[in-house]
Amino acid sequence: MRAAHLVLTTAAMAAALAACGKSGSSDQASTASGAGSPPAAAAKGPSAEEKKALLAALPAPYNAGDLDNGQRKFALCRSCHTITQGGPDMTGPNLYGVFGRKAGSKPGYRYSDVVKNAGFDWDAEHLDKWLSSPRTFMPGTKMSFLGIPNEKDRVDLIAYLKVETGYQPPK
């Protein structure tokens, strides 16, 4: 009985931590609705060495990005976005695979008309403008985020997103 209680308590604690987005992974793997999604442990990201290699392969200035600062800046985005492969959409869409994807085209997510009709693919340049001030870049967006005014913080965040969201540099 005691062993079963310990297993149940451990499982409950792990579920609670995952639901809070504090499971120790670099991303929030829970859903706001509780709908099924892969647990954080199943969505394994790149290793430290792979991250280092991905960062080095990025074009300047992103190849000199500070991934730790980028991760801290992503905390501003975490309440609305996930970045793990197969992760859920929340208030905002899951960002895994965002680079190279047509703006407003992620299946299953309901975008504002302005984003659906933007007519570009997400790249570092567009994302930098978006992160600087979403409402100035695309007036009419439903995104309420005010933006990140510091250029270095945006560079670090974009580098972090490229490393964490499955971006593959051109060969």
Low-confidence stretches: 1-42
Major sheet description:
none
Structural class estimated from helices and strands: mainly alpha
Report helical residue fraction: 25-40%
Beta-strand share of residues: under 5%
Mean pLDDT: 80
> For the terminal residues, how far apart are their CA atoms?
57 Å
The quaternary organization reads as single chain
* Elements, N to C (H/E): HHHHHHH
> CATH homologous superfamily?
Cytochrome c-like domain
Just give the CATH class.
Mainly Alpha
Number of helices: 7
| Principal-axes shape call | globular
Count every beta strand, where a strand is a DSSP E run of 2 or more residues: 0
What is Rg?
A: 17 Å
Could you say what the CATH topology is called? Cytochrome Bc1 Complex, Chain D, domain 2
Number of domains: 1
CATH architecture classification: Orthogonal Bundle
Give an account of the 3D structure.
By secondary structure, the chain is mainly α. It has a single domain, classed as Cytochrome Bc1 Complex, Chain D, domain 2, CATH 1.10.760. Helices cover 39% and strands 0% of the residues. The protein is built from 7 helices and no strands. It has helices spanning 2-19, 48-57, 67-74, 113-116, 124-132, 134-137, 151-164. Helix 3 (67-74) packs across helix 7 and helix 5 packs across helix 7 (151-164). The longest helix is centred in the first third of the chain and has 18 residues, at 2-19. The radius of gyration is 17 Å and the shape is globular. The model is unreliable at 1-42 (pLDDT under 50).
Q: What features would you highlight for this structure?
A:
171 residues; mainly alpha; Cytochrome Bc1 Complex, Chain D, domain 2; 7 helices; globular; disordered N terminus
